Amino acid sequence: MAFVLHPRLMADTAGIADWSLSRVLLMNDKRFPWIVLVPRRPELGELFDLDELARGVLLGEVVRVGEHLKAWAKGRGGCDRINVAMIGNMVPQLHVHVVARVKGDPAWPGTVWGMGQAVSYGAAELSRVVAELRDVL
Amino acid sequence: MAFVLHPRLMADTAGIADWSLSRVLLMNDKRFPWIVLVPRRPELGELFDLDELARGVLLGEVVRVGEHLKAWAKGRGGCDRINVAMIGNMVPQLHVHVVARVKGDPAWPGTVWGMGQAVSYGAAELSRVVAELRDVL
């Protein structure tokens, strides 16, 4: 079986890049700088469905996003914390959220999942942010 | 500086074990089988504050908890998904949540963080669950 991105992730995100393991996506919600990594392997649900080697690659990709997203977000509205999560209660396909959080953002100090309604980027802004993140991540 | 567990984690959890990197804690909230791993190193906030070797150890410890907690929870109320998260908006000390979730639990399909009030175990039940988890994790 080939990897196919879950339709919910397809609908809610924009593609930034394919890295060695993961597809790198921007959540289309301008309230938060919010990246989603999806390992491009079929039939994965839990972290421990990945073999040990691939788990190490995924960890490296999470760290890469976290460090660079934090630096980038600091230059915009600020960044006090990176939130990392694998949840999958709604979208069973294994995916990792990496979200830059700042004191006073619309969910602070709570979490972003299920918090209010997403605020989409405009089309031009979405393209610009995707291009910027493709460079900095 | 020595490792000191953050007072909020100290108040909200019971100790299960010290593994090679992390202190393994049970969240004192019987609504969810909920483990917290805290790397026993001072001055850590973000995942990427850990050196690469220790990050790999932490990942192994997360996988170990996830697999065994899922099997254990299946024998109790069931387990449809393991949620894993590093948040740290309220407790800055680096810690990882590993939570067994089942369809129909009090937060499903939402996340557990900030969801309602914790329901403490009774003292005897807490000791029993800690002892069980010390064996199975």
Structure description:
Two copies of one chain form a homodimer. Chain A starts with 6 loop residues before the first helix and ends with a helix. In chain A, strands 1-2-3-5-4 form a five-stranded antiparallel beta sheet. Chain A is 31% helix and 22% strand. Chain A is globular, with a radius of gyration of 14 Å. The model of chain A has no long low-confidence stretch (mean pLDDT 97). Chain A is built from three helices and five strands. Chain A is an alpha+beta fold and 137 residues long. Chain A has helices at 7-12, 52-74, 123-136, and strands spanning 13-18, 22-27, 34-39, 81-86, 96-101. In chain A, a hairpin with a 6-residue loop joins strand 2 and strand 3 (34-39). Strand 4 (81-86) of chain A pairs antiparallel with strand 4 (81-86) of chain B.
Kindly report the name of the CATH homologous superfamily of chain A. HIT-like
What is the overall silhouette of chain A? Answer: globular
What count of domains describes the coordinates of chain A?
1
By oligomeric state, this entry counts as homodimer
